[in-house]
Amino acid sequence: MINIFLSQIGIDLVKDSSYSPFNCLTRSFVQMRKTVDVEEKAINLRESTLKAFEIHTPIEAIKVASLWKDIALDKAERDINASEQFIACVNVCTAIELYLDDSKRCYFCEDGMGNIQGMMVLQMDPFQVQVSELVTNPINIRASVNENEVNKVRGVGTYLLQIAEEIAKNNGKCSVYLHHGSSSIAFYKKNGYQETDLMTMTKQV
Prior knowledge:
Distance between the termini: 86 Å
Structural class: alpha+beta
CATH superfamily of the largest domain: Gcn5-related N-acetyltransferase (GNAT)
CATH class of the largest domain: Alpha Beta
CATH topology of the largest domain: Aminopeptidase
Largest sheet: 7 strands, mixed
Number of helices: 6
Mean pLDDT: 83
Oligomer: single chain
Number of domains: 2
Strand content: 15-25%
Order of helices and strands: HHEHHEEEHEHEE
């Protein structure tokens, strides 16, 4: 008799979804899935609408470089495993602070949400375009300290290199060349650049 009574309670609980642990978990999962979908859409929007534009006043780029340098220094201290990448970011930002002037062309890379995600400094030589500096927002560096950065994007460096190559073609230049650090050789090779000496890589366009 007791077993029948308990069974009836179980049936009643199943009929009433508000008492169903399974349905509670399902609702939680659906809500979590919706949150993930929103985050993925935001990431796709940021990455799929990257755009580059030239900055005509060096002070704008210098301000961003100074901010990124401070962020990268902080992250280098908090993530030993990725310190080399963050210090490389610091070095590029420092070079932009010190050497950017009106003789060079500076480009920002902006995502679809309006966030500045990268910078590139170009110098026009007689037959080539030199990428003097190329740096991504330090939140984009692959590191454990950046796992929870909601505005990070991928592909900024590759996108800016493509812009440099288009600029070279449009200005009748035969190649793009740049100076590299040890941590960036693999990245440039992946994008079709070849080592010409210990510090320089070039790509024919």
